[in-house]
Amino acid sequence: MSRNEPLAASSTEEIVADRLRAVEAENGVKETLQIEWRSAPKSLSVITMPLNLLSYNPDTHRIKAQRDYDSGRDQSLSTDPWSAEAQQYLDYLLSALPNDPSKIDPAFEKLRDDLESYGQKEPGIITPSGILINGNSRCAALRKGNATQMRVAVLPSDWSWTDVSAVELELQMRKDFRRDYSFVNTLLALDEAISEVGAETAMKSFRMQKTAFNRSIWILQTLRDLADRSKQDDGSSLNLRDFENDQGKLEELYRTFSATAKNDAEAADILRESRLLGLLLDKSKTDIRLVTEKFVPDYLDKLLAGTTFDSQPAAVGQQIPGLGRGLPSEPPVLQKVKGLVDQIAQLRTELLSENDAVNASAQRKYGEINGLVESALDAAGKSARLKKTQQAAIDRINDAADALENAVLEVADAKSKQALDEVSLDEAVTNLRRSISIFAGSVLRMTTMPKESAEWLAAMRALKDD
User: Any coiled-coil ranges, and where (predicted)?
Assistant: First the structure.
């Protein structure tokens, strides 16, 4: 984290101190803001400060995943975060769309318009030297709306960067201001909190249940793994922000993976990799649901034959140093799917290349594998619809059997309580006989049943004529 302060920190501190003294000297009700400060509530005095004396916080979690959008300016931000160039870059990122920083975020525009129309409702928070802890986006929006002043609460003079991080996260988790962190930046903020205060405290600070906490950590690890696997020789790779729009898909993947892993860890690993393949190809949640651990061997494998994506998994596991023997290798299906995911992740990186030849080759290969996966999804979809049709009738019959078993208990219960309406029961039984007779006749006409079942159905069909 950035440990220094702006060059004009001393003069800003003097102005802040003067305004705090002026507020304290005023009669009447004073505006304050209550925060959690070192595990206890604390009220901060609110003052009005000129916008040109405020500095964006270079460590704000709001734009953590977007910082390397422009590597040159990111370097400037790392080496001299208080320079005009670095602060202008922060101003740019605070208004940018999280998953595509080349565009302005509609949520930011809405915030800017709201501030112009109705003014500032909640104060920001600054250090005594004017560094914004909470309210970075609002400051950027006020500046773009040509405002000159901002209401801010002031941290105590003994603040530290650890306090800054804790306050920012605590306020974000309250969700009491307009623009939430993006999906990926929330994951990064959680990860940073874990490294600073531990998992239990971080989970409490983020107001997360254990399940949501574990899911978030698993998703972040999965995304970092994908970024590593996409890396090129020149060091370029996918960025975590490339997955900003995939929150729903990733959360569903975690649920499905966890449920499968309870019974079959190997199948769960194959399922995870297979669905990551669909994620990298930007398939819809509906399409990705068609992908099971059998998707590649049953539907995709034969389509890959003879293409550049048809690779044979290694047969030997990793060697154990000093023992001269190997660990058991991963199942061939898992190795194959992992290889496909690696290839597609690297293609995604190459699609971002400024080298026209590399980009053109990547587009061709990406289009090829995308078409093959689409064909496999079509086949999987047809199979799923067929299985659903095949199973529908069986499920209905099983439901009817369960309902009859429950009816036995209900009749016995009503009888024991002397609440059984035997006239209505007789009418219901008559309807049941008619339905069973119709069912038996239809099944006998349309299917070939084993002798015992056929004889029973024939007897049931005769009930209609009794």
Answer: 387-417
Residue 325 pLDDT exceeds 60 = no
Spatial separation of the C-alpha atoms in residues 316 and 333, rounded to whole Å: 14
Question: Could you read off the pLDDT of 116-151 as tens digits, one per residue?
Answer: 998 998 899 999 999 999 999 999 999 998 899 999
CA 463, distance to chain mean position in Å, is 58
**pLDDT per position as a tens digit, 160-179:** 988 888 888 777 666 544 45
C-alpha–C-alpha distance, residues 239 and 216, integer Å: 17
What pLDDT shows up at residue 395?
78
- The domain spans of the chain are 9-180, 218-315+329-389, 421-465
Indicate whether 6 pLDDT > 70.
yes
Q: How confident is the model at residue 327 (pLDDT cuts 50, 70, 90)?
A: low
Angle between helices 247-261 and 210-229 (to 10 degrees): 110
pLDDT on residue 174:
62
Higher pLDDT, 28 or 87: 87
Q: In angstroms, what is the C-alpha Rg of the chain? A: 32
Q: 141: Cβ–Cβ under 8 A, 6 or more apart, which residues?
A: 95, 108, 111, 112, 115
Give phi and psi for 250, each to the nearest 5. -70, -40
Q: What angle do CA 163, 169, 171 make, to 5 degrees?
A: 100
Quote the tokens at residue 207.
């107001």
Give the per-residue pLDDT at 442: 87
Give me the phi and psi of 99, to 5 degrees please: -85, -10
Say which amino acid occupies 31.
E
Contact status, residue 240 vs residue 99, Cβ threshold 8 Å: no
